[in-house]
Amino acid sequence: MPYRVKIALDHSRPSAARADALCVFATESPVRVYSVDGLSPDLVLAIKRAARDGCAKDGKVTSIDTLAKIRATRIVIAGLGKKSKINADTLRNAAGRAAQKAQSLEAHKIAITVPRGISFSDAETAAQLVEGARLALYKFDRSAKAETPSVSSIGILHHTPAVAAAVKSAATIADSVVFARDLANMPPNECTPETLARTARTLGRNVSCRIMAKSELARRGFGGIIAVGSASYNEPRLIVTEYKGAPRSKRPVLLVGKAVTFDTGGISLKPGERMDEMKFDKCGGCAVLGIMRAVSRLGIRDNVVGIVPAVENMPGGGAYRPGDIVKLYSKKTAEILNTDAEGRLILADALSYGETTYRPRAIIDMATLTGACIVALGASTAGLVSTSDRLAESLESASAKTAERVWRLPIDDDYMAMIDSKIADMKNMGIGRTAGTITAAAFLRNAVSGTPWAHIDIAGPAWTQTGTVERSYNPGGATGFGVRLVTNFLAG
Ligand code: BES
Ligand code: MN
Ligand code: ZN
Question: Which atom of ligand 1 is nearest to the CA of 338?
Fold first, then answer.
């Protein structure tokens, strides 16, 4: 199913690039164009004129005909805006626009020049261009008239080994984002917990995978997963994946991702409007699978465990109810007050199991956990809640590099008190709408003993929705949020 794009270095000069479209970049005030050496003076003049006519602005793009003066039939010029304001995201976004322009011109092969002298090394620049271009070409379309996009290869015009290595790892990461998007975009009738489990077995020869089905989960006390999954014909699974890139003695990083393949809300049924979007309630789990794929292919020298609790939250005769008391894997009990607060129940089981089984040195979970997070931070920034400043700061630094935005929220004991229950160890929601993202995190915190832990609420940025800030490389549907962020954290 996935549409492949070949990504490699092309050692030729721009004039000789074996491509249909040649992509170059421009900055404004004063207008400058980059890496056009070897092109004839009249072509350079035409590029400069187009840049002066407006396409040097950040986010703008245009194309000119090369009138058979070079191999490529078109030159696509993408704007980077003011040179002093360029950051890694400017490069990703511009490369994405350029690739989309080339796609609209029905180019098969595109060649991208690496702009020099813009405060990034060639290797750093090339990596951002690869990610931006590849991710902007992504499309999920299951209609009968769906066409395979024309672009089949991206060549980066460069020749050094450092750039070759950067391009290779950027392509691996981009492919893993595409993998996560493809899974997350799958409709809920096709992508069930079993589908995710089957897919997790294909992550790589160096990734082991163990699946627990319903009977084993019930026997071993995964009360949260069993309760949430109880009304669906699509039975729950716990997916446990391991990658070993360091000696056994090195304690692993544990990743946990929420995968509710469809969240109806259960007995506390959601309103009908935009309920279809709740197929994206599996995005945290899809991101974890994407990260496991990326780290194994990058061959990082660390141990990583990825756990994905996968369930479908349905109403029905066997459904769990408001009023139920559920015993979690930790043996703590939860009073259910709203069956739509299901994510924290399955995550709590997975977190406790992962912590006690693997003794990790750090735990990171990712989940489309609360609508409140979108209210607080908007649709393009994830909420970050952590018991460790060090872990939170490392994630913030990976966030700055990848522009997968996170913003930290507090979690002190005052918030823990908000989920106290009179008849169980805790309740599965807080006090009305107050601090909804933090009270959900408080529930998760109770599942972790002492390991440094970070929770990333990706309800906003996991897919493009109302209020999403536009980026060429997030063209619609699932974004794969978290794959670039956490892979960067693990590799860096
Ligand atoms: N999956 C939803 C959260 C969500 C909603 C993510 C909209 C993205 C967009 C989650 O399971 C949920 O329903 N949470 C409830 C919690 C409440 C019942 C305490 C919510 O956010 O309303
Ligand atoms: Mn829910
Ligand atoms: Zn949910």
Answer: 18
Q: How confident is the model at residue 3, as a pLDDT?
A: 79
279 catalytic per annotation: no
Catalytic residue among 60, 134, 258, 344: 344
Report the CATH number at residue 26.
Answer: 3.40.220.10
Q: Reduce the DSSP state of residue 231 to 3 states and report it.
A: coil
Are residues 317 and 356 located together in one domain of the fold? Answer: yes
Work out the angle between the directed axes of helices 161-185 and 122-136 (0-180°, nearest 10): 30
457 in contact with ligand 1, CB cutoff 6 A? no
- In a domain, residue 181? The reply is no
* Residue 492: band (very low, low, confident or very high) from pLDDT cuts 50, 70, 90: confident
pLDDT surpassing 90 at residue 410 = yes
The answer to whether the CB of 383 is under 6 A from ligand 1 is: no
355-378 pLDDT, tens digit each? 999 999 999 999 999 999 999 999
State the pTM of this model: 0.98
How many angstroms is it from 440 CA to the middle of ligand 1? 10
Q: How many domains does the chain have?
A: 2
Asked if 123 and 199 sit in the same domain, the reply is no
**Residue 1 predicted with pLDDT over 60:** no
Please say if 48 is a catalytic residue: no
Q: Which domain holds residue 98?
A: 6-174
Whether residue 223 is found in the same domain as residue 153: no
Contacts for 118 with CB less than 8 Å, ≥ 6 apart: 27, 34, 80, 83, 86, 125
Catalytic option among 270, 332, 361, 408: 270
Q: Which residues of 379-416 are buried (b: 16+ CB within 10 A; e: fewer)?
A: bbbbbbbbbeeebbebbbebbebbbbbbeebebeeebb
Mutate to test the pocket of ligand 1, among 278, 339, 340 (most ligand atoms within 8 A of CB): 340
